[in-house]
Task: structure prediction
Amino acid sequence: MIALLLALGSSLAYGCADFLGGLGARRAHVLRTVMIAAPASLAVELLLWPVLGASFSAGALGWGAASGVASAAAFALLYRTLAIGPMNVLSPVTALLSAALPVGVGLLQGERLTAAGLVGLPLALAAVVLISAGHGAASARPSRTALLSALGAGAAIALQLVFLHRAPSDSGVAPLIVGRAVSSAVTLAAAAVMHRRLGSERPAYTVSAAAGVLDSVANLLFLLAARSGDLAVVAVITALYPAGTVLLARSVLAERIHRGQAVGLGTAAVAVGLLALT
Result:
């Protein structure tokens, strides 16, 4: 139950971070937003070091660095997918793969589910797809390149979660610190290479920094959840993060929740209840 609550907190934090990051990207190039968010995220993890401890063993360094590379790849592929579109078709593909791969890894590692879990898990996967799909998801057909980018983004997100789960359980926040340092370095290097394409718009500093802080909180909660529960359950609950984004967009921006998304939110609630019984 503790792992489930931590995963729900991680999902909510990821959803809020994505919402704020999206707001920031409306004002300036997305890389400018990330250049603010990434250091803010790293700062939070460094502040957590004295509180939660960190053991920089070979395992923590290796798996943390691997998660950082996967995180940077996920960002790059998501950005490419967004540029190609249509996102109302590609977003469910990315979300489903990012949830399904860790679930498969967890089951292959010998994790077992109760009868309620066997029903709740596919319901949660269905909810991920429904919530992340926008209006008219069947009205546009993506190109092969766009579909491959979406699949790559989903796989990269999944690998980031799996790599964090593989880090030693006694390493504290070391995997998060290493991963964020690596992904920040990759992102800043990309920004330096592309500086002429970033435009002159100033980023929304407060919003971007808040997105980075929430992303760190989400990573921490996922790591704690994965250490205290099954990866199969924790990953699929965390992957429900589009629900937080959708609800914030409805509350703050008055965006409409489409029928399919409303069904997805209801399905998610049922799935979480069933997974709680496991």
The chain has a mean pLDDT of 82. The chain is about 80% helix and 0% strand. Residues 58-84 form the longest helix (27 residues).
